Each structure stands twice: as C-alpha cells, then as structure tokens.
Amino acid sequence: MEYCKKTLSNRSKYSALATKLCFKEKGHAGKCSEFPYLDHFTKNAPTVKAKVVRDATMTTGASWKSDEAGPNRIIRWVMLLDDATLKTDFKLDMGKLKPGVVAKLRDKAATYDQCMEVAAMLTLAAYEMTGAPAPTKEVGAYLEQRFGGIVPGKTTCIVCRLPLAFDAFKKAARGKAEIETAHKNPREHNEKNVGFAHRECNIAQGNKPLDEFYAWIDGILKRVDR
Amino acid sequence: MEYCKKTLSNRSKYSALATKLCFKEKGHAGKCSEFPYLDHFTKNAPTVKAKVVRDATMTTGASWKSDEAGPNRIIRWVMLLDDATLKTDFKLDMGKLKPGVVAKLRDKAATYDQCMEVAAMLTLAAYEMTGAPAPTKEVGAYLEQRFGGIVPGKTTCIVCRLPLAFDAFKKAARGKAEIETAHKNPREHNEKNVGFAHRECNIAQGNKPLDEFYAWIDGILKRVDR
Questions:
Q1: Out of B204, B216, B218, whose CB is closest to A206?
Q2: Mean pLDDT by 10 residues, chain B (226 residues)
Q3: Are B18 and B77 in contact (CB under 8 A)?
Q4: A220, CA 20 to 30 Å: which among B12, B61, B86, B97?
Q5: How far apart are CA A119 and CA A55, in angstroms?
C-alpha cells in the first residue's frame, strides 16, 4: 500500500524527533489518521487499542519510577538518541539510571517507522485471535490490503504456540494482564519479530531470542529424568 | 540427631509466635545456637549466611513496599496467622494489600520447624556447590551427622540441573543475584522441596510445580517446529 504520509499535528515534547504521519492510503477521502486501522477498536475495544499503541511505540520501564529518572515509559525512538542529546535537549539524564535500566531501555529503541509497522501488525494479530470481533468494513479492507486478509483464529502465543483468545485481553491474574506483547528476538522491534504471548510465556522467555529459549528448555528436559 | 532445643532469647516483635531454639546436638558444650552450622559462613561468607537465614525464614514481598502495607519481608510463620490476629496482635492489615500480594504471602507461610530444616539444608547445598570453601571441622561434623556428609560439587540448580558454582553467590546481573532459593513445589517450604536455582530458571518456573513446568516446556517443544 502507498500511504498518504501527510504530516499530522503533534503535541508531544519529542515531536522534533519524529513527524507523525498519516497511514491511510494515498489519495484517501476524509481526515488524515496515524492509526486508521485502529478506528474500530477505539470505539469497540479501547483498552486493546491503547495497548497496541503503547506497546508499539513506548518502551516499558518498570524500574524507571522516580521523577528524577523520568517517566515510566518513553517513546521508543527517543531511546535512539545519545546520552548527551537526551540530557541537553530533553532533560533525561541517563547517567542517573542504573546500568541495568539503561540497557533495558536501549534494547527497546526503535525507529518511528518500525513502531508504525508493529502497531499495524499487532492490530491484525488481535483481529486474528479466537473470539475477536469482526472489523468494520473500512478496517477490514485496510488490513486486507496491507496483510492479505484476516484469518480468524490464526493468532497463537509466539512462545508456546497455543491459540490466544481475544477475551484474554480483559483477563488479569494478580493485577497483571494475561496477554503481553512479546519479541521473538527481544532486541528487535519490527513487524516480523513482534507478536502477542501469554504473560507466563513472555516471562519464561526472558531476554533470550526464541531459538535460544527453545534450545535451553530442550537442554533442561534432556537433563531431567522424569 | 537429637537437638539441645533450649530456648534462646528473642528480640523479634513476633517472639510470642515461635520460641527460638538451640539446634546444637543435645548435651553440647559451650553456648547454645540456633544456627550452629552457619558459624563458618558467618565469618567466611557472611552474605551467603544472611541469604540462607533470610530465604529460609522470611517471605519475599517485592510488592509490599509502602509503610502502610508493612515491611518488605515478613517471618514465614507469622503468615500462618489469620487476618484478624495479624491485625489486632501485630498491626498488619492484610486487607490493605492487593489480593495478589496476600496470595503470594500466604503461599510462603511455613512453621518455625520447617524454616529451621530448610536453613540447614540450604547450608549443606551451599557447601556442596562447585568451588565452595571446605567447612570447619565443627560445621563439617554437624552437617555430616545430620545429612550423612558433604559431597563437593553435588549441588545443581533444582530447575535446569546444571551444577551451581559457589562463586555465583557474588554475581549479579542488572542488580539481581544470580542464585535464588527455589521450590520444587512453590507452595511447600520444607527440606525436601527447597534448593538453589539460577535466577532465570526460577523465573521461568514461576509458580508452577517442577513436574508441571517440565510438562509445560515439553508441550511447547512439541508444538514448535524447529
């Protein structure tokens, strides 16, 4: 698909770093939109929409809690800047964070374009979950044009490969959401490398690439006499 | 071994709940001691000693941070008391904690005797790690009498079954210790069920009993086409 790519207004304090663009099809009618494929979830499943945008564009930052250390999450493409620029231009002092937190944040850096790819792909994956709502005609046509169509029930946890149910977006155990956005290789945030996973699967994978994770658990099973 | 079991003085605010006892052999010479088998680590590896006592006797409580919610860790046998007693006798209001935190704390409850068993067994496991110091004559004789002798290099991670090195007690990645105390069945804190594990293994196991964990990863590998 060729995108409209008109510049959208942007009130973020990081607006200088990435112009927000329109991802509707070139020559579209009506208003421009950065996430046209999320129009339906915006009304119908707003927490799923928020999760897709957040996970696609923001780092996690669980340890990044104090005011001094900055916000809990930060835009992924901001994490592409060097320490000096972050300090002078955005008052984010990476030197005040623990090395482990810095490494985690830097691992999650991605370009604006990568984040936009991931958001569209996660939206498709959500619609392909068991029990997902059917998209509106507009959203369905858009996703079909980008990805070749929606296959209901196709989405599995990228780690354990069991089907994921759309309902699980609402579920949480001990305050933690049951579905998380996960990476086949935790250091690459792009369309081919991202998907949804059960929370317990994502945690078990940790920071290992999936291939390494599977080899690791294979080794465990070989040593265990069950 | 028959223990001395004389009552020791106890300055804990929970002293009414468990009399601290002497675990030297009955009829021993010298002063009484609750942890005689830790005498050597107390001087030689004080952080290992502190870890053994802490993990054997205290709950974890990572989410239990605010003053209102109480201390971060609490004695395991205190968690055997009911909510009403905790509130009236110890000013611990379980109702103020999130249900997930309460469940976690209750899972970690154990009797004083169980905790004392676990402490001795963890000490043995530490001495049986690759590269562990040899115990003093007294400690060696004590552990031999209780457990039938120390086998250097015998201790493996209870999850992945790879040997654990004593040096790893000093190692930490991103601020987290590399060796953790782990449970074959996370809900049973007793000598037969506890051991050391790599942090990543303990995290991957999560709250599953080991049998269930192995069956789970076996299922994953069967579904994955590698």
A1: B204
A2: 91 76 95 96 94 91 45 82 90 82 88 96 98 96 95 97 94 76 94 96 96 98 88
A3: yes
A4: B61
A5: 8
